[in-house]
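Re: that chain you flagged

S.,

Sorry for the slow reply, it's been a week of failed gels. I finally had a moment to sit down with the sequence you sent. For the record, here it is as I used it:
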Amino acid sequence: MQITLSGVRVDGRRDPMLEATDLAWSTGECLLVAGEPGHGHTALALVATGRFVPSSGTVRLDGAVVPPPALRARTAVVDVPGISEPDDALSLADVVAEGLALAGRRSLPRDVTRWLEERALTEDRGRRVDQLPGVVRTAVLAALATENPDVRFVVLTLPDRHGGEPSGWWETARTLAASGLGVLVQCTRSSARDLGVDLPPARGATLHEPPQVVRRETPGAPAEEPGATAVLPAAETGPVVEPEVEDELEPSPDPDARAEEELDDPPDAAAPDNTPIDDTPIDDTPIHDSMAATPADDPQEEAR
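Prediction finished late last night. Pasting the structure tokens below so you have them in one place:
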């Protein structure tokens, strides 16, 4: 799936909230857009997810203009200032309960406890959400937003405003994208530079210059390569196991036993030199019975 913004603009009462912007991102893709605070981050997040009608331009889902409710059903906005950010006075347990309820999930106390236990956050359940490290806060809110299975696109708005290393919340975004979601991350230009993006100083930029796409990644494909490589050692151990089973099942040649059998059996003048070729002891089994029993005597067949 893909969301495409073409010439989208949002007008305010006196100044534009968002200058004309072109943007596109797909599921499985992680997109980083950088801009200074007040340059349209909130307007971009809302208009790209069907929560605000643009003054001009079009927003398409898979190439088609869809009603805003249909777009909202496929998207989630995380921690947008003044819109979807949680009340700082709420505890982590309260935020989780509210997030599960909004996602259409059961949110009883035991459900909240289970959710926190699965993420090793039980000890933090009583902490106020504004006391959480910025990276943990972003990860928790993003995980709650994606509890709704209908959500395919997520917008993380200015996670750097809560402090912490940008690499932390960027890794959270990459993990979401690797799971098949389309992730749009909005940050300041300084945070983008901390992530290794080569950005010039913002001198001369207009006050309302919209956030610009500065990085685009598809972490899903690279994430599959280590998984495939990790399977290789297990596959290589297959041929090694078979000889060990064969050694255990195949009777070791016993010179003394072979000598006793040669004395008991009548001499075969037609093939006196054939006995050493096969290590299997010769018995009196008829030839047709011996051929029928060959697959069962094969150690590899028994192992399979």
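What I noticed first: Strands lie at 2-11, 16-26, 30-34, 56-61, 64-65, 75-78, 153-157, 182-187, 212-217.

Talk soon,
D.
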